[in-house]
What does this fold into?
Amino acid sequence: MSSSSSIAPPCITFIGGGNMCEAILSGLLKTGHPLTHVRVSEPTPQRQEYLRSTYKIDVFGDNNQAITGASGQVSTAPVDVVVLAVKPQVVGEVVRGIAQSLQQTQPLVISIVAGVAIKDFSRWIHHQEKQQGSATGGKRVPLVRMMPNTPALVGEGAAGMFADADVSQEQRMQTEYVVRNIAKEYFWVDTESGVDAVCAVSGSGPAYFFLVIEAMEKAGIAMGLDAEVAKRLAAQTALGAAKMVLTSEDDVATLRTKVTSPNGTTQAAIEKMIEVGVPQGIAQGVAACRERCSTLSEEFGKL
It folds into this structure.
């Protein structure tokens, strides 16, 4: 995890006002980010009103107005950072629709959209410019791909980021300014393919642990435990084990060995799990996730 030096609060526009936007937004405001330096664009009127009344910020129904701050009541500051937080299925249309505003304002664009490559964002942003023959020598909009995960919604997120060559050191610091509000652990990766690996390990990772907790809960119920008791025992055990991993000087294999007494109850459990292929299944699942990320990138590249 990188440590970011103190920087002036950037003016941030969120395109898409869903759960992940709200997680970042609430974190920013709790740590003192000024209301004058944040705007949200959200198409649903009910959601617009919720965000506006809850956070006392400008919420727009028009993406371009949110970027420029035109007709804003609270925030009219020049935009520094645009966070793309829309569904993958509509991202191409959305980015093409704001391309001119992005070219004019030149903010840092941070995408938290899974599976969409930087080359495609760049293609959508600069498509019209290229058609008009003005791309040569033109200034490129700097792009960062960020892969957070859903535990960000409870302040326990993890994230990985990749920056293209146009991102400055100050803009890396701005990225960290945003991500540290939702992630306890965050890392820069050196290649864009590393974002797919982050997706496979931590982006989709919560679902893997939900599956394990669900299986432990069901096993506990089958052994006679109350359903709520089984769930909370399994969940707290997962939380405690994770905290031990993050705070211990021992590696994960050593921690496992320390709680696995020879010929004891834990050894019986671990041996059975290895026998039926639990570790291999997890590894293959993570690999399948990474492969799907690559496939999605190819699909979005055709939009």
Notes: The first helix runs from residue 19 to 30. The mean pLDDT is 92. The radius of gyration is 22 Å. The chain is about 55% helix and 10% strand.
